[in-house]
Each structure stands twice: as structure tokens, then as C-alpha cells.
Please model this.
Amino acid sequence: MDLKEKELIADLKSDRNREKAFQQLVKTYQERLYWHIRKIVMNHDDADDILQNVYIKVWNNVDGFREDSSLFTWLFRIATNESLSHLQKQRRHSVVSMNEMGEFLAESLESDAYFDGNDMERKLQMAIIQLPDKQRIVFNMKYFDEMKYEEMSQILKTSVGALKASFHFAVKKIEEFIKEDLK
Amino acid sequence: MKDKDKNSENLFGEFKKGHPFRVPEGYFETFADRLKVRIMEEEYSTRRRSLFTYLKPAFAVAATLAMIMLLVNIPYTKFAPLEKEYITQQRDNNDATDSTGTIQSNLISYFSDDQLISAMADMDDLESKTISTENLADYIAANYNDYEIIANN
Model:
């Protein structure tokens, strides 16, 4: 954790500078967090809602932040958990089973006005959607965000070995899906 | 594992590395302001909720008391009409007493102050006069004969 981040955390915990520091925190991480959430839930409206919830949680709980990880790690952990609980809620409310979740997300992607990929990109997204939640998150973080396994390990609280295995299985499944689709 | 990662990148090489999603125009520029409004709303509703939570026991006690009053009052008025009649009668009597008092005050106002003062002086005079045993004996001797005295004893 560098000095600048330490100062930011101190300001977030102080009554005087809290609001200004929070604005800075929002500006710094909003885009990265948004795209991380969006790739999990697919739909823009859901991603917007979740991103707001993430920052509200940070605003309400920043005093309890123990500083044993970086702000970035803490924020990404909250965003990942919020996105996963959003998907779980959707499963409960629409009685969508684990196997049907892929179809549900695919429909969500198709109906999203803010998706404008070409055929190949759509195919890749459809393949990613078929993965279990955790594998999908690992694949996105590694493939699109090019995040280091050590960093991912801190955010997802999973060992590096398990993450590597998850990514490996995700790639295999996507390959199979695309080969099947090309036949 | 490193080789496998490289292979996967080769496999996906035909895909443009980057996601095909986009956001509404000006989304990130306005996000902070929308978030600020949402936080203010959340804090307002939390304050309202906490005030309600604070007053909740008082509401509960008031509601319980109202319920008890209702449960006692309905059977009392419905199944005890005699008690009610008694209360009405008592109330009428009290009203009558009140009207007697009104008559007395009207009567007093009828007399002048001088007349009232002299009447009160006479009453004081009457109180000072006590009836002694001798006076009583003289009164009996003057008004009754011997036969009447013996017959009454």
C-alpha cells in the first residue's frame, strides 16, 4: 500500500475530508469495477445497480476497513460478492436452476441494448456464459483484465493453484463450446 | 501451465481481445452525482427507520392499552346496563343538587345587605341563648297539667 493510498484511507475515515476522498475513490475505480461487474451479470442496468451498492457499502463500512489488503482488492472483493449474490437472488426469484442460468444470462445478453459485439464476440460471450460463476469470474479476470494470479487470489480468497486450475478448465470448456458451434 | 495459457491466447487469437459491451453516453461522467443522490436517499430512509425503531415500544404500549380499554369497555357497556342506569340516576341527582344551590344564591341576592347583616346578628343572639333545666321545668309546668306529665312518663 503506497503513501497516497494510505492518505486516501485516512481521509475516508475522517469526518472532515470524507466526502472529498470518497469522490476521489469513485472516480479512480468506477470504470474498472463497472466492467468487472458487467462481465459477471452481463446486463448494464444490473451492473449499474450493483456498482452503486458497492460504493454505498464502502461509504457505510469504511471505518471498519482493516487495511490488511489494498483498497483495490477490498473494492473488487465487495464487487465480486455483490455480483454473485445478485445472480443468486435472480436464481431464487425466477426459479432458474444452475444449468438454466447460462440460458438466462444469454437471454439477458441478447436483450441488452448496450451490447454491440460482432458474431465472433457474441459467440465467445455465449461460451463464457455457459461456465459456472466462479470459473467465469476467473476467466474474465485473467483473459480480459490480464490480472495476476496473486492479485486474483487476494480478491477471490482462493489459492493460486486453484485459480490456475479454474482458468484451465474454463479455457477447455470454451474451446469445446466454440468447436461444437462451428460444426 | 504457462504454455497452456499461451495456447489459450492463441486459440482466442481470432477474437478481438476486449469486451463487446458499451455504456450509455456520459455514464461514467454522471455516475458520481447519481451515487451521491442515492446515498443521501439511503441515509434519509435509515434515519426515518431508526426514529420508528426508537418509538416502536411506545407505539406498542399505546396500542396494547387501547386494545385493553376496548376489550373492557365493550362488554361493560353491553352487559351491565343496570350499572349504566345507576350512573345516569346519580348524575341526575347531582344536577338537582346543583339547581338547589342556584335557588339559594338567587334568594340571597333578593335581600339587601343591611337585611342580611341584621338577620345574621339575630342568629348570633339565638346561639348565645342556652336552654337550662330550670327553664325546661318552668316551660313544662306552664304548658302541661299533672295528668299529661304522668301519662307521657
Remarks:
- Residues 1-96 of chain A form a domain with the Rna Polymerase Sigma Factor; Chain: A fold (CATH 1.10.1740.10).
- Chain A has two domains: 1-96, 117-183.
